[in-house]
Amino acid sequence: MKRLTIAACLALVSGAVLAEPMTRPGLWEIRVDKQIMDGQDMTARMAAMQAEMQKHMAGMTPEQRKQMEQAMGGRGMGGGGSPNTHRICISPEMAAQDKPVMQGDSRCEPTKTTRSGNRVSFEMNCPGVVGKGESVINGDSVATRMDMTITDAGGKHTMHTESRMSFLGTDCKGIKPADQLVKEMQARPKK
User: Which residues pair with 85 in a beta bridge?
Assistant: First the structure.
């Protein structure tokens, strides 16, 4: 459950500034520089989990590895191989929006967004996640800091995250646009 919560929060953090008009459509790499959950540094733990996955994939047959890479790559996972990174494809529609995009849950809209120059401050109140943060846009790079309170089956958790997005180019290299992935998730039958 915590892995799912962390993944959902990463999607929120990375998606918080994607619709800022200065963001271009194309492939972006997101690196989580710092993630603290309930006072515990999760950054090293996440890097270790990613390294374990890479080790597991190295032991697969070439056919199995290709199949796994294709499955993960279409969702932006697998990134550039650096610890705590993943890639996301921003569609032209996402880049043209005039509000932050909260991925993963169509009911999640920012409750407040303030822009001043290259800074975007935002607040959100989504099912299970309440938070605020700020992003600073510098050309092809977006640095985001965010503080959240997450409520799940295990109770309430606090999380502080610092991440950086870097523009890699207009070709998404087979990664599906994030808005398309959200639509596909919403179309799946609920269990």
Answer: 31
- CA of residue 103 relative to chain centroid, distance: 8
What is the Cα Rg of the chain in Å?
Answer: 16
Q: What is the pTM of this model?
A: 0.71
Residue with tokens 């990463």: 10
Measured torsion, CA atoms of residues 186, 178, 82, 118, in degrees rounded to the nearest 10:
-130
Tokens of 6: 């962390």
DSSP 177: B
- Specify the 3-state DSSP secondary structure of 89: strand
Number of structural domains the chain divides into: 1
Q: Mean per-residue pLDDT for 162-179? A: 91
Tell me which residue range forms the domain holding 178. Answer: 2-187
